[in-house]
C-alpha cells in the first residue's frame, strides 16, 4: 500500500474515532475541507461541510455515548472505504423519534476522498431501517 493510501486511511480513522466517537469538533474543522461535498447527505441535511457538522452534532446529541467500531478499511489511492458499526444509547430525539433509552447499533459503509490531509468528498450508506426498527419506529420484518 502506498503512502497516500496510508495517510488517507489515518485521516478517516481519526474522523471516525475522534470526531464521531469522541465529539472533537475542533478536529472536525481541521479534517474537513471547506469545499467538502457529501454526495449522499442524510434526509434534511445539506451536502456541504456545515451539513456534515450538523449531522455529527445530531448523532452525538441523540446518542451521547455514540461510538463507532471500525471493522475494516480499504483504499484505492486517496479514496478510503470503511465498514463500521455504530453503537449508542438513544437519549434524545433522532429522525423524529423521541428518546427511547434503548441501546442501538447499525451498520454503515462509506467512502471518503482525502486530498492534502483533508476530507473532500463522501459517499455513504447507513442501515437506517435497522436503526428505526430498533427504536420501534418501523414495522418488524415479517410482522402482520
UniProtKB/TrEMBL annotation:
This is Steroid delta-isomerase-like uncharacterized protein. Keywords: Isomerase. It comes from the Bacteria. GO terms for biological process: polyketide metabolic process. Coiled coil: none annotated. SUPFAM superfamilies: NTF2-like. Pfam families: SnoaL (PF07366). GO terms for molecular function: isomerase activity.
Amino acid at each position: 500500500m502506498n503512502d497516500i493510501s496510508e495517510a488517507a486511511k489515518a485521516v478517516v480513522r481519526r474522523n471516525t474515532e475522534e470526531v464521531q466517537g469522541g465529539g472533537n469538533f475542533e478536529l472536525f474543522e481541521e479534517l474537513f475541507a471547506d469545499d467538502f461535498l457529501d454526495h449522499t447527505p442524510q434526509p434534511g441535511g445539506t451536502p456541504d461541510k456545515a451539513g456534515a457538522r450538523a449531522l455529527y452534532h445530531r448523532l452525538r446529541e441523540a446518542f451521547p455515548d455514540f461510538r463507532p467500531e471500525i471493522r475494516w478499511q480499504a483504499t484505492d489511492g486517496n479514496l478510503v472505504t470503511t465498514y463500521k458499526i455504530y453503537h449508542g444509547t438513544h437519549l434524545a430525539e433522532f429522525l423524529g423519534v423521541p428518546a427511547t433509552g434503548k441501546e442501538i447499533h447499525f451498520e454503515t459503509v462509506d467512502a471518503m476522498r482525502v486530498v492534502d490531509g483533508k476530507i473532500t468528498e463522501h459517499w455513504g450508506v447507513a442501515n437506517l431501517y435497522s436503526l428505526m426498527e430498533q427504536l420501534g419506529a418501523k414495522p418488524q420484518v415479517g410482522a402482520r
